[in-house]
Amino acid sequence: MRIGIARLWHEANAFSPAITRMAQFKAREWVRGEDAVPLFDGTATEIGGALAWQRSRPDVELVFSRCASAAPAGPVDQALLDAFTAEVAGDRALDGIDGLYLSLHGASIGTADLAPEESLLKALRRRFPDLPISASFDMHACLTPDIAAHLDAATVYRTYPHVDMAQAANDALDMLARIVAEGLRTQVVVRAIDRILPSFNMRTDGSGPMGEVEDIAVGAQTAMGDGRILAAYPFASFAYADVPAANSGVVVTCEDEAAGNRLADTVAAALFERRRAFIPDLASAEAVLASRPWANGRRVAILEPSDNPMSGGLGDTPGLFAAAMATDLPEGSVFAFFCDPGLAAKAHAAGEGASLEISLGGRLDRRFGEPVSCGATVLRLTDGHFRNAGPMEQGMRVNLGRTALLQAGRLRTIVTEGCQSPNDRNYFALHGIDIEAVPLLLAKAKNHFMAAFGGLFDEVRQCDTPGPAMADVSRLPFRHIPAERFDIS
């Protein structure tokens, strides 16, 4: 059995002022053919999962087309997307394959095309009208009946933080192999609930509404699993993509359409019933800092999700940093991070120990606040390369570009050329920071932070500041999502 593999993994924030271009893909992932194997082998990613799956299936050969991903950011340059689609859809390496597995995020957008994954699937179907195709998606995919119509099977991450990427690939490949080997005729059903559910309260690693819905989905599909393929996956969509397809719901793979619709209805109802539990209640950065949660020696992390790069933030908003600079912080506090290639270059030119006058935040977009000017000392310089310790994307190589650790007031502040979330222990180890000795960490991050650090701090709080992924979506200029989808009261 020859299984083709291709990948387009990017989450786009429509409110980011920066276009995602080839440089961002090459910094993270832009490979094809056998070059994919050393990049992903042994990693907790979809393609890493596919390679592990193949080892247990000596009857299967994997054939790699283009695999591409970039860190979440603004819309992708349309010419790049068009070239990617043409390359994969016309790839002669895929001649004679028995099935095709796609690793898709589901919330990419282009500078012109608001549904590039759908465009990719349509192009592939024109070439392979009868080929079994399965795909895996991020929990925050924007899935539609048009996407489902071009697939024979689909999976979605069940965990948030997303520590089951490899499992999502494994399950998608299991279904694909069954469809190929047994000649099954399956379909994918999507049921939307016409609501956008905020992701701030969406973690599945404890009690919470999404974990409850995942349990219901697994239980319901098990109860109906009488030998037919029935797999139900709730998804939460991604509001900040600002596309008509943004809508939470459930996706079901089935042989029997009636059974699939019943399962979809069950899970969609459970998701809708819990909609109010997703409403976040976040205090401002000033209010959180004024409460001094680090008092009495408690170790605390305060997150700024409005500029979280995993939600398309650019490491550029000054809200939390400005509030912190006006607060009496404990000695040894850390701020992670600002993305500022010019400042990183300036620090490298000055060298370790140099004193600088700097400006932080508001470099790309002053809608979310004015830059903060201050003096700083260069503590440490790095080339920005490390491997993730995990558990999320364990083993993946990371390239932050050149970085600098600066002392600004009481804050040790990380500045990077590239924009990636500080969600891994080795991010801090790279900068000589013993994360277990940090009394207060301020980080541009959200729920993924908890995978590596959830048990490390006495308390983790999120605050709301102005930014491209802020909790108060009424302050963002949406154009494509009906206002009623945001009403979850």
TrEMBL record:
All copies of the Microcystin LR degradation protein MlrC N-terminal domain together span 2-290
Picking any one GO molecular function of the record gives: metallopeptidase activity
Q: Keywords for this entry?
A: Hydrolase, Metal-binding, Metalloprotease, Protease
Name a single GO biological process.
proteolysis
Q: Which cofactor does it need?
A: Zn(2+)
Q: How is the cofactor bound?
A: Binds 1 zinc ion per subunit.
Give a yes or no for keyword Nucleotide-binding in this entry. no
Tagged with keyword Iron-sulfur: no
- Pfam family example for this protein? DUF1485
InterPro entries xref list:
MlrC, MlrC_C, MlrC_N
Domain Microcystin LR degradation protein MlrC C-terminal span(s) in chain numbering: 302-480
Q: Which family does it belong to?
A: Belongs to the peptidase M81 family.
Q: What does this protein do?
A: Involved in peptidolytic degradation of cyclic heptapeptide hepatotoxin microcystin (MC).
Q: What is this protein called?
A: Microcystinase C
